[in-house]
């Protein structure tokens, strides 16, 4: 496309002319593509069909009612909440320690710690899953919610560290120096200056880690033992057609929860920028 | 009172210990188990270390072929997701202006939806009694519902591209946001047209973000076993399914460990190559 002299062009946010590629419709198409399958599933959760079959015969809300009669399903959802909270708390606390140490200190193990905290990102989940499975087996640790949470705390750590590190880089170290000049010990400075200043980012990191854990299935399958989380339970039930509508109804409900949490985490992060 | 230096160890030791115990030690255990001579009881005294398992991996064409297939599938997924996410991110960064937040939230909702649910949605769409077949038969494009759509490598690839697009758009958006608009204005003042500016400023400056995105999709995808087991059928299984099988039904931990080590080394080699290609410090989210 050649630019003719004097041709009128739409203005972009940079204040200079732009190509005539209709990106708005492209975006709309992509969004439609992303929402359509979810919408189909949402509609299906109100269908009287018990198998994944089209067309839908008639509508019902019974599957949502059936959730509360399914003991195993409720236990799995509760386990997911516990595992997610534990993993997010551990990952956020360790991510906080990592980011403070990496941003505010110079010491010989600094680069190694940063590399280790980021390394879980480059290990495929199946490798991490069998690795932890082997260690818990060799050390005779019974598999439970705690082993899942331990595994999830490792894969969530890079996210927590990254979020807190970015925020900490934007904080003026002079605030900490001032607190210490005024007589605060370093731990007191961390507790009363750094942590409050990071406040919202800590919540954002925690929510991000929680969602990473809450949706994770590849590792949880190996580490669950008898304590199934919701994704593990769902994965197991997907082979049985008759329970599928209830599973989908529950997944839709939980999805509303995780979407809300993601939006809260996003709102916090964009306010911080 | 704990000094600043004392606090350093108080802060650094817990993450170090946690990572040693739950990251370094487990990966070390995989390597140690992979060096066992046989598949029997775990016994480190007789014949350890041995390269038996690795010889078996190298001699079994089916394993390496499956690794190759998985790498090609993961490449297709990561490349497609990155390329398809790019215009979304570009639109958000350069065209959406005041409504960027709303459009970004629209993208975050599928991102935050359950992964298994999204995989199931595609099974529902692609299945022989699924929506696509229903539409195709109702408009008489095909007469019999086709079972070819689901349970294939293509189904796995399509489903995973779908799953990863919202995730891929976010780091690319961050990379595009960081481009100083003054560069584009300067280029325009010097007579560069929109396509020239895009090709010579926007693309090169967002490339590190795009490469990082590619790897953030490629690494989890190459080790996938959940999605192939749901929509892949027998032809669509991936290398991750082999590993998973040796730890569940197959019950051959040493061989499964060797397969895992081979994949991990391949992935690490790729990451090291990527790190030489792009400066990661420029892609921090």
Layout of secondary structure:
The complex is a heterodimer of chains A (273) and B (285).
Chain A: H1 23-44, H2 62-67, H3 71-104, H4 110-118, H5 125-138, H6 145-169, H7 173-181, H8 186-214, H9 218-223, H10 230-237, H11 244-272
Chain B: H1 4-34, H2 52-59, H3 61-95, H4 100-112, H5 115-126, H6 131-138, H7 153-177, H8 181-189, H9 194-222, H10 226-232, H11 239-247, H12 253-277
Helix pairs in contact in B: 1-12, 2-12, 3-7, 3-9, 4-7, 5-7, 7-9, 7-10, 8-9, 9-12, 11-12
How would you characterize the overall build of this protein?
The complex is a heterodimer of chains A (273) and B (285). Chain A is mostly helical and 273 residues long. Helices cover 70% and strands 0% of the residues of chain A. The two termini of chain A are 37 Å apart. Residues 1-8 of chain A have low confidence and may be disordered. With 285 residues, chain B is mainly alpha-helical. Chain B has helices spanning 4-34, 52-59, 61-95, 100-112, 115-126, 131-138, 153-177, 181-189, 194-222, 226-232, 239-247, 253-277. The longest helix of chain B has 35 residues, at 61-95. Chain B is globular and about 75 Å long. The interface between A and B is large, with 97 and 101 residues.
């Amino acid at each position: 496309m050649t630019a003719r002299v004097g041709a009128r062009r739409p203005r972009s946010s940079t204040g200079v002319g732009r190509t005539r590629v209709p990106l708005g419709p492209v975006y709309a198409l992509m969004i439609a593509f992303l929402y359509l399958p979810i919408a189909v599933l949402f509609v299906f959760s109100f269908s009287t069909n018990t198998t994944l079959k089209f067309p839908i015969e008639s509508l019902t809300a019974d599957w949502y009612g059936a959730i509360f009669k399914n003991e195993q399903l409720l236990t799995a959802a509760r386990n997911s909440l516990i595992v997610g909270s534990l993993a997010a708390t551990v990952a956020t606390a360790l991510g906080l320690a990592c980011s403070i140490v990496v941003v505010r200190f110079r010491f010989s193990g600094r680069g190694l710690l940063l590399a280790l905290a980021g390394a879980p990102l480059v290990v495929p989940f199946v490798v991490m899953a069998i690795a932890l499975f082997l260690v818990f087996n060799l050390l005779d640790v019974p598999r439970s919610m705690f082993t899942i949470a331990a595994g999830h705390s490792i894969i969530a750590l890079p996210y927590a560290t990254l979020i807190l590190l970015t925020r900490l880089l934007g904080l003026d170290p002079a605030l900490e120096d001032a607190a210490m000049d005024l007589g605060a010990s370093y731990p007191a400075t961390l507790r009363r200056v750094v942590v409050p200043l990071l406040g919202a980012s800590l919540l954002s990191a925690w929510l991000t880690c929680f969602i990473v854990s809450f949706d994770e299935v590849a590792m949880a399958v190996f580490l669950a033992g008898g304590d199934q989380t919701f994704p593990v339970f769902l994965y197991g039930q997907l082979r049985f057609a008759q329970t599928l509508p209830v599973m989908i109804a529950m997944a839709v409900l939980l999805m509303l929860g995780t979407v809300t949490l993601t939006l809260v985490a996003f709102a916090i992060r964009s306010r911080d920028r | 009172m704990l000094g600043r230096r004392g606090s350093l160890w108080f802060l650094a030791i817990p993450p170090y210990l946690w990572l040693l115990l739950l990251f370094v030690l487990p990966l070390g255990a995989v390597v140690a188990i992979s060096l066992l001579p046989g598949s029997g009881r775990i016994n480190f005294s007789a014949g350890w270390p041995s390269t038996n398992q690795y010889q078996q991996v190298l001699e079994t064409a089916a394993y390496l072929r499956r690794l190759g297939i998985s790498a090609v599938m993961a490449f297709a997924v990561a490349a497609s997701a990155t390329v398809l996410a790019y215009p979304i991110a570009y639109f958000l960064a350069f065209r959406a202006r005041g409504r960027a937040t709303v459009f970004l939230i629209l993208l975050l909702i599928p991102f935050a939806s359950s992964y298994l649910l999204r995989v199931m949605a595609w099974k529902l769409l692609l299945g022989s009694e699924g929506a696509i077949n229903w539409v195709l038969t109702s408009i008489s494009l095909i007469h019999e519902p086709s079972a070819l759509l689901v349970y294939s490598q293509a189904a796995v690839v399509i489903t995973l591209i779908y799953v990863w697009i919202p995730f891929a758009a976010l780091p690319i958006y961050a990379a595009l946001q960081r481009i100083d608009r003054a560069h584009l204005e300067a280029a325009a003042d010097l007579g560069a047209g929109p396509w020239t500016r895009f090709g010579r400023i926007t693309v090169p400056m967002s490339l590190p973000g795009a490469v990082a995105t590619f790897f953030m999709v490629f690494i989890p995808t190459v080790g996938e076993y959940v999605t192939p087991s749901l929509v892949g059928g027998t032809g669509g299984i991936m290398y991750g399914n082999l590993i998973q099988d040796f730890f569940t039904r197959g019950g051959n931990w040493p061989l499964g460990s060797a397969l895992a080590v081979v994949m991990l080394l391949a992935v690490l080699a790729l990451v090291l190559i990527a790190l030489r290609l792009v400066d990661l410090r420029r892609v921090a989210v």
